[in-house]
Please model this.
Amino acid sequence: MQITSMSLSCEKYDVFPQVFTTLYSFPNMKPVRFQMFPADFLNLPLRKDILHRAVVYEANSLRQGTACKKNRADVRGGLVHAPKPRDFSTKLPRKVYYLAIRTALSARYKRGQVVVINHTFELPTHKTKAMVNVIKTYDWDHDSGGAVFVMYARRKNFIYSTENLGKHCIIRNVKELSVKDLLMKERIVIERKALEWLEKKTRIE
Model:
């Protein structure tokens, strides 16, 4: 059983400035209501160049240049051009990075791959079996492409129940979410408050 985002939007978001998004309950995934989000958050045109720049920026920020040997300034008999730690991080304007987040979300949303949860992911139990049943029922398992679950705040039982499901899903707090995360799995399952926070955080003035 697949759950997809239901939307009403316009290709030119400046003509129709809002998109209507279906909110679901969790874990039974029943439609609860609609909520409007800005079209320049969930209905932007695809920009592969922007996405590529953002993913490279994130990768370079994590890259470590740790090779180090003593040169002649450090010790007699040292190498002339000995390797030293390097900073591989690159710069990317904040506005461009925020645009990449919105572009990634828009691309997934327009393909029906964003599922918005009305409240939270919290479960009545911390047992893995509870989440196994959920991801298999709604085709969020590894064989169906997996899912990225984005929380607004820490959900204790939910986190414990997904600890052994690494190949099926990625768990992220919205404040730690990256562009790469948004492109990794077939579905993005996100709490409403997390999506609202992300919309405010990435507003491009």
Summary: Confidence is low (pLDDT under 50) at residues 8-15, 65-73. The chain has one domain: 18-201. The helical segments are 39-42, 48-62, 94-110, 128-137, 156-161, 179-184, 192-201. The chain has seven helices and six strands.
